[in-house]
Amino acid sequence: MPNRRFADGEVVMGRWPGSVLYYEVQVTSYDDVSHLYTVKYKDGTELALKESDIRSQSSFKHRKSQSSSSSPSRRSSSRSRSRSPGRPAKGRRRSSSQSREHKDDKKKTIQETSLALPVIFFSFNQKPSENNTRRYNGEPDSTEGNDTSCVILEQKLKPDLEVERVLEQYSLRPRKEEKKKEEIYSEKKIFETIKTIEKASSKTKELEFGGRIGAFMLIFFLPATVFYLLLMCKQDDPSLMNFPPPLPALESLWEPRVFGVVLLWFFLQALFYLLPIGKVVEGLPLSNGRKLQYRINGFYAFVLTAAAIGTLLYFQFELHYLYDHFMQFAVSAAAFSVGLSIFLYIRSLKAPEEELAPSGNSGYFVYDFFTGHELNPRIGSFDLKYFCELRPGLIGWVVINLAMLLAEMKIHNQSMPSLSMVLVNSFQLLYVVDALWNEEAVLTTMDITHDGFGFMLAFGDLVWVPFVYSLQAFYLVGHPTAVSWPVAAAITILNCIGYYIFRSANSQKNSFRRNPSDPKLAYLKFIPTATGKGLLVTGWWGFVRHPNYLGDIIMALAWSLPCGFSHILPYFYVIYFICLLVHREARDEHHCKQKYGLAWERYCQRVPYRIFPYIY
């Protein structure tokens, strides 16, 4: 176990997370397990820092000249060279050797002066200003004067600023040298240095999903999983013991007509997105302070889509064509998502540094391609990520479910759909309509604010959501399951409980994020943080840390129960959802701990359960 360097109570310099600013802090404790120091800033903020983010105060104090001991001797020896009594004190020319010695002493004096400069640190993301407490972005108070609690990294950029001041004070530099220095340290070079360091600091350092190898494997694993699930549902006995399922001929998986329908669907939803209906709202501030505008008309797009589908059914269009060519539709959607991902990555190479995603700027092609290199890729005002998040895949999910309902009626010669199919369609329709009705809430999610738009979201939005989330309906077409009315009532109550938890928890969070001072939220208690935001400790968020995930899992279970218990395949969605939400929960925990520091630890002590109360 490594020994700790700093003792409790010791005053040191601590780096503020996410910047290169160092502030004067006091060590309060040390965790032997996590090897983190708990430090306290002058404004009372407490954070947990790594040992690499802490430095002693002595490293920030003015460095003394390495040759200071020899300087007085040289000066005294220079003074000891007394003039001859016969020479006048003024008007005589010095010898050449004395002139050279004088110049050498002058150069040494300049060198000594530069060695005696203070080490100053500068934050490139913020401009220092007097009396600036920086509480608006969660940074502790800055101090003024000679206090070392706010030191600026300026020596790396303009190390001769202080030298110039000293040299001008003692008139130690000729004008030609001064002009030369001004040319070397021009403003252009300074801003180029700042830009280079900003670029290096914005790189993604912590890789998720198993890093480069994990991202590479997921690019192939995700499509293989979708095709495996669809092939298994087609089998008479979709048992896991029947692995692998018989593979169809490759030429049967592709049909240009199906791909044309996929393109038509995508561009039809894009047309609905561009319609000048619905309100326009601003998203959360970006890293540069700018706010993007979004048109909220997803529910209108859903209504227009329902009208278009109703028109097709009125003219006796066979919507169960989707069921008959389901694998071909999945392959076409996957091919389109891959093409879209390649386009997104190529265009992201020309995007400015401030428009890149915090999670997808690692510098590794495979990882950035998978997670998304650009945060908000736009063509004019058309936001590609925001559009794909709710429109083509989510609305397409409802259309696929309807196609499965019609296919069940046709294949089994039924005049009415089965109760199981009605339950699945109704529950999932409610979920989609809720998402579109509360479309504005998606602007505060990590998908929009943190994740880039790459293969992960493109494939997830356009392939995984419509073709995996509709797995229960697809399963019931080939494996009908009878459900009694009492059982159906119990499943409905379970779904309503999950939906109530999901919606009320999300509404609390979104309302509090938008306006914490809203009188309607006065009953909510929260823990203040150094960022200026608060962590709710009452309501659903005082029950468990992620109540919305709890509601999601309960609803997913209600969607699968109408399929019975003959096979585990319909419950893949529940298993996947639990794994996904546990991963997201761990991801949220990591980000929140970094962002909120000790405030998050206090929140975790106040709310010990993550998703499942009294279990996890």
From TrEMBL:
InterPro entries: ERG24_DHCR-like (IPR001171), Lamin-B_rcpt_of_tudor (IPR019023), Sterol_reductase_CS (IPR018083), Tudor (IPR002999). The chain crosses the membrane at residues 209-231, 258-277, 298-317, 329-346, 457-477, 483-502, 523-544, 564-583. Residues 53-110, 128-147 are annotated as: Disordered. Keywords: Cholesterol biosynthesis, Cholesterol metabolism, Cytoplasm, DNA-binding, Endoplasmic reticulum, Lipid biosynthesis, Lipid metabolism, Membrane, Nucleus, Oxidoreductase, Phosphoprotein, Receptor, Steroid biosynthesis, Steroid metabolism, Sterol biosynthesis, Sterol metabolism, Transmembrane, Transmembrane helix. GO terms for cellular component: endoplasmic reticulum membrane; nuclear inner membrane. Belongs to the ERG4/ERG24 family. This is Delta(14)-sterol reductase LBR.
